[in-house]
Amino acid sequence: SYVLTQPPSVSVAPGQTARITCGGNNIGSKSVHWYQQKPGQAPVLVVYDDSDRPSGIPERFSGSNSGNTATLTISRVEAGDEADYYCQVWDSSSDFYVFGTGTKVTVL
Amino acid sequence: EVQLVESGGGLVQPGRSLRLSCTASGFTFGDYAMSWVRQAPGKGLEWVGFIRSKAYGGTTEYAASVKGRFTISRDDSKSIAYLQMNSLKTEDTAVYYCTRGGILGDFDYWGQGTLVTVSS
Predict the structure, then answer these.
(1) What is the pLDDT of residue B56?
(2) Closest by alpha carbon to B30, among B78, B83, B68, B95?
(3) What was the pLDDT predicted at B105?
(4) Do A102 and B46 touch (CB under 8 A)?
(5) How many interface pairs between A and B have CB atoms less than 8 angstroms apart?
(6) Nearest 5°: phi and psi at A80?
(7) Which of A5, B9, B80, B85 is deepest in the core (most CB within 10 A)?
(8) Measured in whole angstroms, how far is the alpha carbon of residue A49 from the centre of its chain?
């Protein structure tokens, strides 16, 4: 089965840039989506199809995907960005959806 | 406004069954695939399964951890998706989310979740 690996945690100071990686075999050939989940809340889609943002998501959230790594970048980090972030792909070879292991972003 | 509301969660003994419902509004329900995603306490997200729209055959796919025990169905006339869970195990304890499937394989809308606790 397809596996997506994320770092367990990322720490960043306010105003700085946070980068969250998502590793998978040839993930650059897949469409990657990212979700933000705050404590006690349902996940929210923040980036879809590698780098597009749903309406209402700040431009500070951006994504890229190439080779074996996809990256979610949060620019000018704010205290409100503190949350768990998950990457996700559709594995067409198995007809399964796959989530990454999740990354906790802490704003110092 | 798109809304997804789950119901039917609760405490159930191991080996018993439970059926969750997801009532949708704000969009043409029959045009979309619907998925269930769960999250065990303190753990990450786990995809459970999905049902395609009737236009794509209305067929289902399941994660290996639930295949043969869980069944997803849909009633497009009522805009409801169901998750029938049989032979429940303690490891099925989780918050269960209903999600709408985006055309690019994403989950663009989520319900608030319903807690299922499997315990004796």
Answers:
(1) 93
(2) B78
(3) 86
(4) no
(5) 61
(6) -70, -10
(7) B85
(8) 11
